[in-house]
What does this fold into?
Amino acid sequence: MKFVDSASIRVEAGKGGAGCLGFRREKYIPDGGPDGGDGGDGGHIYFRGQEGLNTLSEFRFNRLFRAKNGQPGQGQNKRGKSAVHLTVEIPLGTKVFDLETDELIGEMTVHDQVMLVAKGGFHGLGNTRFKSSINRAPRKTTPGSLGEAREIGLEMSVMADIGLLGMPNAGKSSLIRQISSARPKVADYPFTTLHPSLGVVSYYDEHIVMADIPGLIEDASEGVGLGFEFLKHLSRAKALLHVVDILPADASDPAENYLIIENELRKYDPELANKPRLLAINKMDLLREEDRVDIVKKLLKDIDYHGDFYNISALNGLGCRDLVEGLFKLVKANDE
It folds into this structure.
């Protein structure tokens, strides 16, 4: 399943250090010449391609990247120290845009590829630079120039291994928070998820990408609700995870909710309805332990489900480790 993961950030390169206004002040040399040194250059900002990064999620929380300024010059013709350049790692496959001009700056395609995105300011000149045959004691200096500042757009095509299915408020966002590093908005009302959220799920040294799309409702295949904008992405997924709320807050029937989603998949694309999947029966923590077996048996019978299923609680993590193991097995089976 392919999504365009995007983020917008601001980069500010460092300012050049100011030149120094200085004169030699030594014993027996009362009228020494100019000795003000130049400032240091401001730091550039580079992007570097990094394998192993799967999403742009970290840039949603850290949106300002600022390089250091160059140090000002000093007397005795000492030049200020230039700033260390700032390097920001981004995932491979990321396109980098200047949002103010819509210019494509470049695309990160190779591990350790380096891209200059904001140039640091040039150093200021000390008054020594302005000494001449007609001006033996110049008092002129220049400040360092400002570094480049740009609004940067990042776009990354992400292939998600697992697509999450479910009615609005079924607990998909809570699940992706529980088993991945993603932090989608979670609240107790339908359509909390308005845009896809991507989470990287780890199992030992392996990783898969899971996509939480907006909850589907009846007639979604015909554009109702948030429409079929996201249904088309599901057809590219390797596998699906259908999340069912076993005790919906609106007192609706879990089996009927499951069948509504399945019907929408069949109406949109029969092949999509036959895609490999697992069933996660969520909010089991709300049921008494002695009732869980009977309630789950009834659900499976009502929906005529014969595949693998997991009883979970996305809120407290009940059964989530077993679910993760099952997801990895499912993805691996469909990679072969």
Q: What stands out?
A: The chain has a mean pLDDT of 84. The radius of gyration is 29 Å. The helical segments are 172-179, 231-234, 254-268, 270-273, 289-303, 320-335.
